[in-house]
């Protein structure tokens, strides 16, 4: 089965953006990990307080697409909409 992996960085440009990440990250992580098909989901701070490391793994394209759709209409999606994302998405074979 082909899994979908997203990795990269969430790059804040202001302290208000980092505040938004900090405020909404716990619920976003909880909801994401509870989604059907979510195998792994991490958003971690780095040594730079404006940059967060992102790592996601979903069981397939359908689960990944459902996650992306949920995020777009979520509080997290609204609160972090202006934050730069540098992501790489790839298919991973078992």
From TrEMBL:
<keyword id="KW-0503">Monooxygenase</keyword>
<keyword id="KW-0560">Oxidoreductase</keyword>
<dbReference type="InterPro" id="IPR007138">
    <property type="entry name" value="ABM_dom"/>
</dbReference>
<feature type="domain" description="ABM">
    <location>
        <begin position="17"/>
        <end position="70"/>
    </location>
</feature>
<dbReference type="GO" id="GO:0004497">
    <property type="term" value="F:monooxygenase activity"/>
</dbReference>
<dbReference type="InterPro" id="IPR011008">
    <property type="entry name" value="Dimeric_a/b-barrel"/>
</dbReference>
<protein>
    <submittedName>
        <fullName>Antibiotic biosynthesis monooxygenase</fullName>
    </submittedName>
</protein>
<dbReference type="Pfam" id="PF03992">
    <property type="entry name" value="ABM"/>
</dbReference>
């Amino acid at each position: 089965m082909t899994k979908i992996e997203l990795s990269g960085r969430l790059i804040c440009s202001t302290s208000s953006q980092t505040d938004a990440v900090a405020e909404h990250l716990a619920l976003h992580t909880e909801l994401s990990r509870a989604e059907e098909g979510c195998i792994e989901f991490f958003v971690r701070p780095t040594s730079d307080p404006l940059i967060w490391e992102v790592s996601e793994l979903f069981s397939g394209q359908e689960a990944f697409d459902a996650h992306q759709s949920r995020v777009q209409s979520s509080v997290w999606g609204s609160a972090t909409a202006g934050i730069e994302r540098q992501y790489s998405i790839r298919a991973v074979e078992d």
